[in-house]
Specification:
By secondary structure, this protein is of the alpha/beta class. The protein has a single domain, classed as Dihydrofolate Reductase, subunit A. Helices cover 18% and strands 29% of the residues. It has five helices and ten strands. The strands form two sheets. Strands 5-4-3-6-1-7-10-9 form an eight-stranded mixed sheet. Strands 2-8 form a two-stranded antiparallel ribbon. The two termini are 20 Å apart.
Length: 196
């Protein structure tokens, strides 16, 4: 069964974006970028990968899941940010008419995210990338098999948390690797501990 991987940038105080969804404070230059763009090439937006000459191979991820607010960051300019992946966008209030123009490989759904992810996990293929945001991550917390956190040396003070407040129940993960870069970015990877 394939994994659901929450791969995301996060500030030192635990935010994945500012209060209005801003993420431009996260550093996109520095020695960490080569590592990330090589290992996680599938997570680079298609239009950016084209410009940078990055070839997403589908070997890490072949599917991405996200909430409406994550998709909305690129609208109306980029209605299908990861055209090279199967994209599932969750919203109970938005419809296809809210996505302008062509949006290949993108499915907007009001289905229960847990049911959709469980279905996707049962299919053959590469890992499934949980792109964001914090509310969707909270809903899918019990389905997350791996966390890859790109911690930047920033304090946001407010914003969208890594996980939105939800029903408290500890979930144990085990660190399997951490790399610190001269840029100050630290990439840490964790896998879910098996239930006792």
């Amino acid at each position: 069964m394939r994994e659901l991987v929450y791969y995301v940038a996060v500030s030192l105080d635990g935010y994945i974006a500012g209060p209005a969804g801003e993420f431009d404070a996260f550093p996109v230059e520095g020695d960490h970028m080569h590592h990330l763009n090589t290992r996680f090439a599938d997570a680079v937006p298609t239009h950016i990968a084209d410009v940078l000459g990055i070839e997403p191979t589908g070997s890490m991820f072949d599917t991405v899941v996200m909430g409406w607010n994550t998709l909305a960051v690129g609208l109306p300019t980029v209605p299908s940010p990861y055209r090279h992946l199967r994209q599932f966008v969750f919203s109970r209030t938005r419809g296809e008419a809210d996505i302008p123009g062509e949006h290949p490989n993108l499915t907007l759904t009001g289905e229960d995210p847990v049911e959709v992810v469980r279905r996707l996990k049962a299919e053959p293929g590469a890992s499934i990338w949980l792109c964001g945001g914090g509310s969707l991550a909270t809903v899918l917390a019990d389905e997350i098999d791996r966390l890859v956190l790109k911690r930047s040396p920033l304090l946001f003070g407010d914003g969208i948390p890594l996980f939105a407040p939800g029903a408290y129940r500890p979930r144990a993960f085990e660190e399997v690797g951490t790399t610190a870069f001269e840029s100050g970015v630290v990439v840490s990877e964790y896998v879910r501990r098996p239930s006792a």
